[in-house]
Amino acid sequence: MMKYVYAGIAVLIAVMAFIILWLYGDVQDLQADLATEKANVQIAKTEINGLNENILMLEKLRERDQQMIDSMSDQFAYLQEQNDETIATLNSYRSRLNDFAIAKPGLVGRRASAATQRLFNDFRTATGRAQDGGGEDVPPSEAESGTPAEGH
Asked: How far apart are the C-alpha atoms of 133 and 137, rounded to whole Å?
């Protein structure tokens, strides 16, 4: 009977040895996995630091762009103001020219017709149409001819 007890103890020791070896292999695998994961954590930390630097750079660029947009907005407002002043000045000149045209219709009409004629002649010369006669002359204005122009 003792032999069976010794055999049982031997089997029990063998099973325990097998379990210990199996657990030792698992511990080795877990330690290797832990080392790999520590390396992966270090890589992730490095990537996070790089991403944080990129975020800081992008924030600085956004601030610079916002300053440029603000500056351009100020410049646009200034140019818009200058444009409004120029339009007001032009409208003032138009009003004065209209008043003058009403007071002296022949004078303004002749000058406008002469200027238009010079413009068309210059255009014909610039485009090379002056050699072939360039078409008909510009018809005189109402003030020049004393009669209403056709189509009015």
From this structure: 10
